[in-house]
Amino acid sequence: MKKLLKRILLFSILGMVLCFATILMINNNVESVGNTYILKMDDVPKADAILVLGAYVFPSGTVSTMLNDRLTVGYELYEQGKAPKLLVSGDHGQKDYDEVNSMKNFLKDKGVPSQNVFMDHAGFSTYESMYRARDIFKVQKVIIVTQEYHLKRAVFVARELGLEAYGVASDKRDYGQAMVMYNLREIAARNKDFLWAKIFKPEPTFLGDSIPVLGDGKATDDK
User: Fold this and answer.
1) What are the domain boundaries of the chain?
2) How many whole angstroms separate alpha carbon 204 and alpha carbon 105?
3) Nearest partner of 168 among 76, 80, 41, 79, judged by Cα
4) Residues 154-210: pLDDT tens digits?
5) Which residues make beta-bridge pairs with 122?
6) Alpha carbon distance 130, 111 (integer Å)
7) Is the pLDDT of residue 223 over 60?
8) Across the strands, what pairs with 168?
9) pLDDT of residue 57
10) What are 164's strand-pairing partners?
11) By three-state DSSP, how is residue 221 classified?
12) Are 34 and 26 in contact (CB under 8 A)?
């Protein structure tokens, strides 16, 4: 009986070690691929669109610090002529929570014409934002903007889905102790999106008619 228990314990430990090693290997693979295509603002090539990924918006409609930085970098890229259009992708799944209109308003306040800002109202996850950028907005070459910890995964997913994707990090400040939790959660997210983008490739929550990003961004208003 003792020998059986020892064997069970040994196999349990080996299983946990193998699982942990696999998680780390996938995490490192996603990081490595993502890092390859993360460039400085001046070095990133021109693209069809600048894709700014959503983050928390306050009930007042004011964007959070992280989202402010993402939008600011997206605007700076637009001003440099890196792409003629901006695509803001986030969560607008409920009437009382709307990331994308707040993002578009931020950019319009900077002077970006409404027709040059497209809203993806159903960007409920990084994977879904990339999938919809490709299939709904017909983006082929894209510059993705978010904080670096998140950007590696976003670029990886986009590349796996066939987009010619590059990333520009929007880390304009120290985000404090919250980054510890974000980085830990990101390991799990990278493993999930590795499976989603590389193996399962599920459809996003919503698809629909195409709205080519080279057209008029007003087509996405009030959707």
Assistant:
1) 28-212
2) 26
3) 41
4) 999 999 999 999 999 999 999 999 999 999 999 999 999 999 999 999 999 999 999
5) 91
6) 26
7) no
8) 145
9) 98
10) 141
11) coil
12) no
pTM above 0.85, yes or no: yes
Tokens 């059986």 belong to 4
User: pLDDT tens digit string along 21-35?
Assistant: 999 999 999 999 999
For the record, the structure tokens of 88 come out as: 């803001």
- CB within 8 A of 54, min separation 6: which ones? 67, 88, 89, 90, 91, 99, 100, 103, 123, 129
Per-residue tokens: 92:
């607008």
198-204, long-range: CB < 8 A, 24+ apart: 198/160, 201/161, 203/131, 204/122, 204/124, 204/125, 204/127, 204/128, 204/131, 204/132
- Please report, as a single letter, which amino acid is at residue 187: I
- Quickly tell me which residue has 């995964």 as its tokens: 153
Q: Could you tell me which of 137, 135, 132, 130 has the C-alpha nearest to residue 151?
A: 130
Half-sphere exposure of 222 toward its Cβ, with a 13 Å CA cutoff? 1
Do 128 and 141 form a contact (C-beta atoms < 8 A)? Answer: no
Which sign does the torsion angle of CA 201, 206, 209, 210 carry? negative
Q: How many CB atoms lie within 10 A of CB 142?
A: 26
- CATH fold of 28-212, please? Rossmann fold (3.40.50)
**Beta carbons of 49 and 130 less than 8 angstroms apart:** no
Q: How far apart are CA 55 and CA 111, in angstroms?
A: 22
Place of tokens 């950019």: 107
- Contact between 39 and 166 under an 8 Å Cβ cutoff? The reply is yes
CB 74 within 8 A of CB 52: yes
Closest CA to 104 of 222, 204, 206: 222
DSSP 153: H
